[in-house]
Write a structure and sequence with these properties.
Shape: globular
Number of helices: 10
Oligomer: single chain
Radius of gyration: 27 Å
Helix content: under 10%
Mean pLDDT: 89
Low-confidence stretches: 1-16, 25-40, 131-139
Strand content: over 45%
């Protein structure tokens, strides 16, 4: 059977199941998709190559490059001398044309929006060995002289070589190479002091619920043409959770020619294995790209102890993108589908393993978006996008669960429209649009206490509100069922204005969220940048006001009257409503960023940022007894600040790489302002004064270098990650008395223990080495890669008895090997 049929069959099965499971309102979503166009995340570069007589030259090889990110794409001019590069991520690029007998040309272009960039390249007859650099040419260091954003770009060339035990589950590992990201367990991360207020944007579809494997299914980075991570001065077109916007441009077959396919397999320690296949190709008017992959492992999640108990899992993902473009290139249609499924164990503590606990989780998600793009002129483009996301999570209990037995069965779906129009001229890039989104949510949750010591009436931490659900003392299970459809609607207008070396980005967004309570906000987004050409320096500063929607996982329960009746009396007494229902509000944040981008020679680019955030209703989450079920929380306020540094090295004598360094200080201010919080052991923290949240980390640093050995196709690389250690509320003496966490005692660095000088987790440095070979130049359609992960076998923990996450162990030394066959 062909790979085309395998791919189509697997995706068709997944979406048939989606339609059946959501048939109550799926027809409405389908109608939106039939109507819709798409919010594209990429642009295009079009032009002509002319000879000295101004006549078009056909058959000329044209190459588009960004030496910093590693982006490279080639095409050949048609009979009329024209060329088009499709699906180009926003960035500065250089067009290279080198034709025998003519002077080589390098011409700079900037892709900033969906409006195609038009250019003409005129060749002249070579004299001696001269070359031409057009005045618009960008330096190799690719300074972004007209951008006010702080962002990092990651190209598919780095993604393909990123070290990982399972390449298709490495998205979060790649994202955290950006400065300011503090790593936590199972791909979770905290960015610039925030909890998880970040979002993925996949070909214009915003995914703002949590996609980590604990909650849903990780996104396969292999589908990405490029990833842009915006973390300062986020444009007004983005909303919901914009602490960091992870903007993916997916791979497309448009203009790709004959079908190209590859298949790969990979193996690693803990019976870890993965396999996948992809295929893509197309003409100037039609393109297709699709992939399917799956993996399994006996160390599927980061375990809760070094013995890795009860931790098997397997996952599947599929992706499909179809593009259709009219012959005059004025109308473009696109359909994208992304589906995933995970079956896994819930890792056990020593006590749970001895009791025979066997909890399991099933999660599924399907994402679809479709669109049409209309180019009215070289200056105006209309886009209207429609999308749907269907996400399910199910926790199955077992007969021997301890200290609680719990069931969770929830759906978190959304669908909507994203129309926009863009207009450009020499001084302005204007964009206006709408985001119209609906959230049908259903939640079912039950629990009962199965350990008589968990809520012992004789203990200091006894919570009388949990006593009715103590199954060891004649209680019954707590049960909660609810469903609701929320909405998020927004309108925005932004203009990127340029005047000589000055750039100003002026934008405003109006957001309206009604889940769980109606809240609105005007969100100005203002940034300025100035380029000093003599020193190759870009200065930038910005102010953003943003409205973060809450975490929607279990939002109905967390904001319910039933939740208010469960919390400890001390928590209820601290609440503004005197123990009554308290809804989880949207976080409101004021954000300031100040940055410098500096070229050092022609090969090195340096970005420095200082940032500050002040928030009302600072968001976080509370994990329920090691089940992986979390409840969203809100504290009264938050105050975060820090700095980031990023070094990007363009290819130099075969060497290329980056280094990211960041510092984060994150202070949360009680009392608890919303949500379900059951942990008796942390009452002093959440009812006292300001405290450092476990997003706070003094220093995180990551670097990577890749060396291509001449033109041989062989390469070697290394990456290093340093984390100085997150906050922990526990201490060695307490841990030694806990049979499930005594192993963690040596990993606590004791401080004064005050709220603003808490104990820390021991710092760790993880070193990876990689080697690889691309044998296609030897007419062997294979590539090989071997990664030695955590080469020094560093022992470490992400967190220890965190109120918000628990305890989790970093991976040990592992050897991962992948083989890829291209045909």
């Amino acid at each position: 059977m062909s790979s085309h049929r395998v791919l189509g069959g697997l995706l068709a099965h997944s979406f048939r199941r989606t339609i059946l499971n959501n048939r109550r309102w799926f027809p409405g979503v389908l109608a939106l998709l039939m109507f819709a166009t798409s919010l594209y995340a990429a642009g295009a570069v079009r032009g002509k190559v002319l000879g000295p007589d101004n006549l078009p030259l056909s058959g000329v090889l044209v190459e588009l490059r960004n030496e910093v990110t590693g982006f490279k794409q080639q095409t050949v001019t048609g009979a009329d001398g024209s060329f088009t590069f499709f699906n180009i991520p926003n960035n500065p690029y250089t067009i290279h044309v080198d034709v025998q007998g003519f002077t080589p040309v390098q011409q700079g272009v900037d892709v900033h929006s969906a409006v195609p960039v038009e250019t003409t390249i005129k060749l002249v007859v070579a004299r001696l060995s001269e070359s031409i650099n057009v005045s618009a040419t960008a330096s190799v260091a690719s300074l972004e002289t007209d951008s006010t954003q702080s962002h990092v770009d990651i190209d598919k060339s780095y993604i393909a070589k990123a070290p990982a035990a399972v390449a298709s589950r490495a998205m979060e590992q790649i994202v955290t190479s950006t400065p300011g990201f503090a790593k936590d367990e199972n791909g979770r991360f905290h960015f610039q002091g925030a909890h998880s207020q970040s979002e993925y944007v996949i070909d214009g579809q915003t995914i703002s619920d949590q996609t980590g494997v604990t909650f849903s299914n990780s996104i396969d980075p292999g589908i990405a043409q490029g990833i842009e991570i915006i973390y300062g001065n986020v444009p007004a077109e983005f909303g919901e959770k914009v602490g960091a916007v992870i903007n993916l441009t997916t791979k497309s077959g448009l203009g790709g020619g004959a079908p190209k396919a590859d298949a790969y397999v990979g193996v690693s320690k803990f019976s870890t294995a993965e396999a996948g296949v992809s295929v893509g190709g197309g003409s100037q008017t039609f393109g297709y790209f699709g992939s399917v992959n799956g993996s399994k492992s006996d160390r599927f999640l980061d375990p809760v102890n070094p013995d890795n108990l009860h931790n098997h899992g397997d996952t599947f993902r599929g992706f499909l993108r179809l593009d259709r473009q009219s012959g005059d290139a004025k109308n473009s249609f696109r359909f994208t589908a992304l589906a995933g499924s995970t079956h896994r164990d819930v890792p056990n503590t020593y006590t749970q393993e001895a009791a025979g606990q066997d909890q399991r989780v099933r999660s599924n998600d399907e994402n679809i978006n479709a669109g049409w793009q209309r180019i009215f002129s070289q200056a105006a483009v209309l886009e209207i996008g429609a999308f749907g996301r269907f996400s399910k999570f199910h926790l199955d209990p077992s007969s021997n669960d301890t200290p609680v037995s719990a069931t969770s069965d929830r759906t978190l779906n959304n669908y909507g429209l994203t129309p926009s129009i863009s207009w450009t001229n020499s001084n302005h890039e204007v964009k206006a649009g709408l985001n119209l989104k609906r959230y049908p949510i259903r939640e079912h949750f039950t629990f009962g206490i199965t350990d008589p010591g968990l809520n012992d009436p004789r203990s200091d931490g006894f919570n009388p509100n949990l006593a009715p659900y103590d199954l060891t003392r004649g209680g019954t299970e707590f049960a909660f069922d609810a469903r609701r459809t929320g909405s998020y609607d927004a309108a925005y207008l932004q203009d990127n204005m340029k005047w000589n070396n000055l750039t100003a980005n002026l934008g405003v967004r109006y957001g309206n969220n009604n889940l769980p309570v109606k809240e609105t906000a005007f969100e100005p987004r203002v940034g300025v940048g100035y380029y000093v050409q003599s020193t190759k320096t870009v200065f930038r500063a910005s102010y953003n006001r943003v409205l973060y929607t809450p975490e929607f996982e279990n939002i109905l329960l967390s904001s319910s009257e039933a939740a208010a009746k469960l919390v400890p009396p001390e928590v209820a007494a601290s609440r503004e409503l005197g123990g009554g229902e308290l809804l989880v509000h949207s976080e409101r944040q004021n954000a300031w960023d100040f940055g410098i981008q500096q070229a050092v020679g022609s090969k090195l680019r340096v970005d420095l940022d200082y940032w500050k955030r002040k928030s009302k209703f600072a968001g976080d989450q509370d994990q329920f007894e090691n089940t992986g079920v979390v409840f969203p929380l809100a504290f009264t306020s938050g105050d975060y600040n820090g700095w980031n540094v990023r070094f990007d090295l363009a290819r130099t004598a075969g060497l290329r790489g980056f280094a990211s360094v960041g510092h984060t200080r994150a202070v949360y201010v009680p009392p608890l302002a919303g949500g379900l919080f059951l942990d008796q052991g942390a009452l002093d923290t959440i009812t006292g004064g300001p405290f450092l949240i476990d997003h706070d980390q003094k220093l995180q640093a990551q670097g990577s270098l890749i060396y291509d050995i001449g033109q041989s196709g062989f390469w070697a690389g290394t990456s290093v990650r340093y984390d100085s250690g997150l906050v922990t509320d526990t201490d060695p003496a307490t841990l030694l008395q806990d049979p499930d966490n005594a192993f963690a005692a040596p990993f606590v660095v004791v401080h004064s223990g005050t709220p603003l000088d808490p104990n820390r987790i021991k710092s760790r440095t993880i070193v990876d080495f990689s080697i690889g070979a691309d044998l296609q130049k030897y007419r062997v359609p294979l590539s090989l890669q071997a990664d030695l992960l955590n080469a020094t076998n560093e022992k470490g923990l992400y967190n220890i008895q965190s109120v918000f996450g628990g305890t989790h162990v970093v991976p040990p030394r592992m050897l991962a090997v992948r083989l890829r066959y291209t045909y």
